[in-house]
Amino acid sequence: MSEVPVPQYHRVKQALLREIESSDYAPDEPFITTREVCSRFGVSTTTAVRALDDLVREGVLVRKRGRGTFVTDKRQVRESIPSRNTRTLGCIFSGLQGRHMSEMLSGIESVCREAGYRVLLFDSAESAEKEAHNLQRALDAEVSGLIVCPVDGYSNSTHFNKLLERGLPLVMVDRYYPGLVTDVVVPDNFAIGYQLTDYLIGKGHRYIATLWGDTQCTSVQDRLSGYRRALQEHGLPIIPELAALISYEKLPERKRSELLQSWLEAPHRPSAFLCVNGYVMALLVKDLIHLGVNLSEEEAVLAGMDDVGPHDLLPFATIAAVLPSYEMGSKAMHLLLDHIERGEETRHILRHIVLPIDVSIKDLKPVHLQARAAKGARADH
């Protein structure tokens, strides 16, 4: 991935701002011309004009027809130079699908509206490359700060560190980079894995399979840690095949079918399936039906580690964690605004906020899972 550069016109503008701040320009004193900007900074006329135009738009400079560009009153200059150039904030999300994302965005937007900021929203569409591009777009828009829900994996750490080195306020929400020094707002993902597994064990389940979507992110890794801890505290074995952090969602259909078949025929056949979210659960139900499993007559339990999915976690889930989505967005925005408005006071204050989760339990008849070849399905996997 390429570096995320500071736009050339932005460097010129910041240099001119520092000069205005440190020099004693009298009101209505002529300022540097476009030609002089080109000569001093070695930039094109287009770059020089853009830098000067921004300063005029912000009230730092004023143009007078037939006379040129002038510095405004010093007091007005100080009042008009913000830490960034607009009351605009950037919001870069790994994706925009589902209720969880929309509720987080609602929490963000409500705080922004009250504070008099506007939000630019960027969709990374689960792509690290698009996320890096969105970071550049946010820089180009000269946002005052960023809230980011990062995509799976940690490939953009260099980009994020560059932003922090430039002093851009940044808050990560839902998941985060462990090595990045920034504020974080997340649900209690460890508790999700622990509490759901503990509940299932309490209902008599010894073998609980886990099914994942993304795998290289803190939310999933923390949930897996909670799952393992609950098994350990109850003295139950951790079966590697059932606890493996692999993406069921990204497996081809044939591989998913083979995996389920092997589980259902194993001595440690799971009696409960713990799905990372409703999307994975919906996929699991479809695959089980394809295998010929009659979900209304057999015996097993489906559980969701959050209530995010294409449906209301399906009628098959007996237990699901409920995420504090709106509060996550609201809290993240309050942290970001605090950094922006207090500036240097908060530069070395880092907050890692873990919000409690709720658990929804449905009194549903369990179903027994048994592998049968579906009509037209091959039996030789």
Automatic annotation (TrEMBL):
Pfam family, one: Peripla_BP_1
Gene3D superfamilies associated with the record: 3.40.50.2300, Winged helix-like DNA-binding domain superfamily/Winged helix DNA-binding domain
InterPro entries, per the entry: Peripla_BP/Lac1_sug-bd_dom, Peripla_BP_I, Tscrpt_reg_HTH_GntR, WH-like_DNA-bd_sf, WH_DNA-bd_sf
Membrane-spanning segments: none
Source species of the chain: Rubrobacter taiwanensis
Protein known as: GntR family transcriptional regulator
Sequence ranges assigned to domain HTH gntR-type in this UniProt record: 6-74
Keywords: DNA-binding, Transcription, Transcription regulation
Single GO molecular function: transcription cis-regulatory region binding
